[in-house]
Specification:
Blueprint (H helix, E strand, L loop, with lengths): L11 E3 L5 E3 L14 E2 L2 E2 L8 E3 L10 H18 L9 H4 L9 H15 L3
Parallel strand pairs: 1-5
Antiparallel strand pairs: 1-2, 3-4
C-alpha cells in the first residue's frame, strides 16, 4: 500500500489499537482484491468493500481492539446492505493462489466473532 505503483488500497484499515482509517468512501472503488472472483462475478473491487487489519496476522494475532472496531464498522452496514456471513470473505477465497491473508487461524477467530455478533445468516 505504501508503493503507489502497486495500486493497492482499501476502504478501511484498522490499526492494532482499533483506530480506523477510511481511505476510500464506501461508494468508491478501492483496489483491494486485484484479479478476483466471488459468487460468479469477477472484478471484486467493483462491488466489495475492502477492510484491512494492520499488521501481519501470521506474526501477530488480531487484537481485541481490532475486532471490536471492525464489528462496530460492520454494524452500521450489515442491515443497510443486507449482508450475511456468506458475503464475509478474505483474499484466499476470492484470489486463491495469489493472496493468503488473513492467517487461516485468525480468519476463523474473526469469523467466529462475526457469527456471535450477527448470527449464522
Amino acid at each position: 500500500m505504501l508503493t503507489p505503483a502497486s495500486e493497492v488500497s482499501y476502504h478501511l484499515v484498522i490499526d492494532a489499537d482499533g483506530t480506523r482509517c477510511t481511505l476510500v468512501d464506501d461508494v468508491g472503488i478501492a483496489w483491494h482484491a486485484g484479479t478476483s472472483n466471488f459468487q460468479g462475478r469477477s472484478r471484486c473491487n467493483d462491488f466489495l468493500l475492502g477492510c484491512a487489519f494492520a499488521g501481519d496476522t501470521y506474526l501477530t494475532p488480531l487484537t481485541e481492539a481490532q475486532m471490536k472496531s471492525a464489528l462496530e464498522w460492520l454494524d452500521e452496514r450489515w442491515s443497510r446492505h443486507g449482508w450475511s456471513l456468506a458475503r464475509m470473505i478474505d483474499h484466499r477465497q476470492i484470489s486463491p493462489e495469489r493472496k493468503n491473508d488473513l492467517n487461516p487461524i485468525e480468519w476463523e477467530r474473526w469469523r467466529e466473532r462475526m457469527v456471535r455478533r450477527f448470527g449464522v445468516t
